[in-house]
Structure formats: C-alpha cells, structure tokens
Amino acid sequence: MFTWIGQFLSSSIGKKTTMALTGLLLVGFLIAHLAGNLLLYKDPEAFEAYARKLHDLGPFLYVLELGLLALFVGHIAFAVRTIVENRKARHSKYAVQADRGGKTLASATMPLTGTIVLLFLFWHLIDFRFDGGFKGLFADGASGAGAADVVWNTLGGTAHMAVYLLGIAALTLHLSHAIQSAFQTLGLRHPKWTPLIERGGVALAVLLGLGFASIPFAAAIR
Amino acid sequence: MSANEHDETIDLTLKVWRQRSGGAPGQFETHEMKGVSVHSSFLEMMDVLNATLVRAGKEPVVFDHDCREGICGSCSMVINGQAHGAEPETATCQLHMRKFRSGETVFVEPWRADSFPVIRDLMVDRSAFDRVMSAGGYVSANTGSPPDANATPISREDSDQAMDAAACIGCGACVAACPNSSAMLFVGAKVSHLARLPQGQPERERRVVAMVQAMDSEGFGNCTNHYECSKACPKGIGVDVIAQLNRDYIKATVVRSN
Ligand code: HEM
Ligand code: FES
C-alpha cells in the first residue's frame, strides 16, 4: 500500500523533492524565528512576552520542536545521500575543468555551507536551548523577565560574535542558491515568474542574513 | 581568440588522453601540432594527428564521430575542460581551429562519468542513454501516418517547445559537464519532447516513471541545479525541460491515484 512512498523517496527526483520541501519549510521557520527575535528591538517586555507564549504552549511546544527536528533530519539525511551518490557518479576526475557560468559560488558550496550551518546550530542550541541562560526563567510560571538580557549577555563576546557571523554567513550563502533551486526541483518554472523567484530568493536570503546578523552586533555595541 | 588574419595555420601543443581500456589507467600524451589549418574542424585536426601517428607506426587516437555536421551527437570530447570546447552551442565536429590561438596548449579528455565508461582513449560507452530511451522514450500507440500529424491541432507554443526539446542529439555533453554527472537535461529533453505533443499523452506518466527509474539505475548523479548542462549543450536546450521532468515525475508518482 505504501510502496510508492519508498519508491519515490529512493528515486533521484524524490530525494531532491524531499530536500526542496523540507528546505522551504525550514525557510518558513527561519522567517518566523527572525520575526520573533526582532521583538528584541521593540522592548524587552515584548520579547519576553513572546518567549513566555512559546513556553506556555507546554507539551505542544515539544511537538513543534519534534517537527522542526524532523525537517532538519530529513533535509540532512537526503543531502548526505545525494552528496555521496554524486561523488560516486564520477570516479575519474577531469584534469582541466572550466565552468561555463552555470555553477556559482553558492551552488558549488552547498554541502560545505550546509555543514557549517549544522555545526553552528549545535552551538546555538547549547547557547539557548540546552543549558543556556534561559534555564529557570520560565520555570513554574515565572514571568520570563530578563530573557532579553540573557540574549544580549550571551552574544556579547567576540567568540560568539565570530561563530554567529560565520554561521549566518554560511546560511545566507546556502539560501541564496537554495530558494530558487527548490522551486526548480519542484518543477515550478515559468518564463514570467522564474526571474522574480531567482531575485526574490537571493533578496530573502540576504534579508534573513542581515536580520539575524544584526543581533550579535546589537549585543556587541550595548 | 582567433588566429591572426594573415596566418592560415596555427601551432598547438595537444595533450590527448590515452587509455587502453575502461579498467586501464590513462594518461595524457603530448603532441606538437605544427601548421594546423585554421579552416579545419577539431575532428579534422585529430585526423591529421592520427595520420601522423599511423605513418610513424603508432596507435591512432580512438575517438567517436559520425555525421560531422552536428546532428548525430557522437563526437564526445572535453576540450580544455569544456564539453565540445568553449564555443557556445557547437558540437566538437563543428568547432573550427580558428577559435584557437597559435601556441596554445589544448587538453583533450573523454566524457568522464561512471555511467559512460571509457572504451578506449576518447571514446566512451554511452549505451546508458540507449537503455534510458528503451525504457520509455517513444510512442507505442498508433498515431497514424505522417499526413495525420497535420490533422492533429496543436498550439504554436506547444509545437515550438516540443521542437526545442527534440533538438537533443543525445551526445551526453550535459552529463560530461555536470559536476554531479546527472543526466537530467537529456532525460528532461526526451520526456518534455513527447509530453508537449498530443501523441505523447497516453503514455506520458508511464514514460516519465520508467525513464527516471532507468536513469537512476544507470548511476547518474542527482541534479543540484548548477545548470552547467544547459550551458554545455550543443543544441542550447534549456533547463525548463528539467523542471518539466520534475513536475511530470512528481505528478505521476505522488499525485496520480494509480
Ligand atoms: C536552516 C537551515 C537550512 C535551510 C533553510 C536549508 C534550505 C535548503 C533548500 C531550500 C535547499 C534547496 C533544495 C533544492 O535544491 O531542491 C537546500 C539544499 C541543500 N541543503 Fe540545505 N538548508 C538548511 C540546512 C542544511 C544543512 C544543515 C545541511 C547539511 C549538511 C544542508 C545541505 C544541503 C545540501 C547539500 C543541499 C543540496 C544542494 C542542492 O540541491 O542544490 N542544508 N537547502
Ligand atoms: S560527429 Fe555527429 S554531431 Fe559531431
């Protein structure tokens, strides 16, 4: 009954479709994540109220987190599979290789930028999810006051600045290829829309990058 | 890039890939080519090299060729790192030596992809494409005789797009140029060509599924949308055929109930 799913997921196009869908959903998450973070600039209470609301979701927050984890695992699992298969598809390398302008810095470094994003993610989760300063702030109906200060204090140092900027730069480069690439993978190509999608994808990648990068900068100059 | 107007000949240093068989190790062999006519094609220059080699009692360089007019797709050579050389939309047989500078060093390699094993020197086995085609790259329903084709109404846009896809000569430059050795441009062209014509509709879904299955089992890589394929294609086939292939495959496997 479900064999078609296995067949689809083991086909080259099925693998790429899964990467494109999980990738686009992750972009959706990033937009929401950044929107929440930007509340830091409004006032500390706005950010704390937002964080409070997330925590009030209770078990439902775990469901959301599991969903997010599934997106990452799915995206990365198929990324690893396709990278390995693509390496295997050409054992003997060209002595001379001259690209014709299709390949870009972003498209050629997808495995690298993806890996940097993943490593950054571990660091980021340790900062704010596992044993970060938020611990206790939201326990047992605590108000969450001081959450904004935790962000500023955590991100203030040079080590954090360097790691965050590297991670965010890799993410920006990854997305500058990824967003339009996902549309092509899903078969959504159109003479009128594709030029907009290509430019819009890069614009969204840069906006997300600038938005996220602004936070460690703001922390540094406080 | 072109030779001096007054010079009718150029001198080149040719580095040609020599490999006795698929399993054997290969290496470059250097040949100084003196007085190459700028009016000759790349293959004619290779013919001159081979004539010289034969006269010297050596093995000629094995390379694939047939029509020498850019329609059969057999002249597979990677020239200075580019499939069919640097000229846009030009097969190796149509590439003229006036496009090279005197004194230049020119590297000539075979298509490199595990799905296209080297037979000898520059000649590779492209039968993987034949197997993909026999999986579904045809119409088996009776579509009538040639006059009947004119009786089937088809929009100008559809016929133009089908013709663009049908321009594929199956040379394999897309695979050779793809950093992932993916065959998506070739398979996309073949699927789109028939998907855009009324005659292709009855078998459209079965075709795309079977051809993608055959493509995957031949060990071609996964497309990551670099688009080097389209830039290398001697017929200038666009990556819209890859989008069509993706769309048709997703529809046929995920959306359709059967
Ligand atoms: C927030 C994190 C991430 C987002 C939003 C994201 C998004 C995307 C999108 C939309 C694509 C395009 C898929 C397509 O072309 O069809 C993609 C491709 C890819 N991603 Fe990610 N990705 C993320 C993290 C990662 C991570 C952690 C890796 C890990 C190793 C990774 C590796 C790749 C690779 C190798 C590709 C394939 C390149 C290609 O197909 O062009 N990504 N990503
Ligand atoms: S020899 Fe036929 S296309 Fe070049």
UniProtKB/TrEMBL annotation, chain A:
Keyword annotations: Membrane, Transmembrane, Transmembrane helix
Signal peptide: none
GO cellular component: membrane
Sequence intervals crossing the membrane: 20-40, 60-84, 105-126, 161-179, 200-221
Xref: InterPro entries: Cytochrome_b-558, SQR/QFR_C/D
Protein name as annotated: Succinate dehydrogenase/Fumarate reductase transmembrane subunit
Organism of origin: Rohdeia mirabilis
TrEMBL record, chain B:
UniProt GO BP: respiratory electron transport chain; tricarboxylic acid cycle
GO molecular function annotations of the record: 2 iron, 2 sulfur cluster binding; 3 iron, 4 sulfur cluster binding; 4 iron, 4 sulfur cluster binding; electron transfer activity; metal ion binding; succinate dehydrogenase (quinone) activity
Domain 4Fe-4S ferredoxin-type: 159-189
Domain of life according to the entry: Bacteria
KW Zinc (keyword) present: no
Entry cofactors: [4Fe-4S] cluster; [2Fe-2S] cluster; [3Fe-4S] cluster
Pfam families found in the cross-reference section: Fer2_3, Fer4_8
Protein keywords: 2Fe-2S, 3Fe-4S, 4Fe-4S, Iron, Iron-sulfur, Metal-binding, Oxidoreductase, Tricarboxylic acid cycle
UniProt-listed InterPro entries: 2Fe-2S_ferredoxin-like_sf, 2Fe2S_fd_BS, 4Fe4S_Fe-S-bd, 4Fe4S_Fe_S_CS, Beta-grasp_dom_sf, Helical_ferredxn, SDH/FRD_Iron-Sulfur, Succ_DH/fum_Rdtase_Fe-S
Enzyme Commission designation: 1.3.5.1
Protein family (similarity comment): Belongs to the succinate dehydrogenase/fumarate reductase iron-sulfur protein family.
The name this protein goes by in its record: succinate dehydrogenase
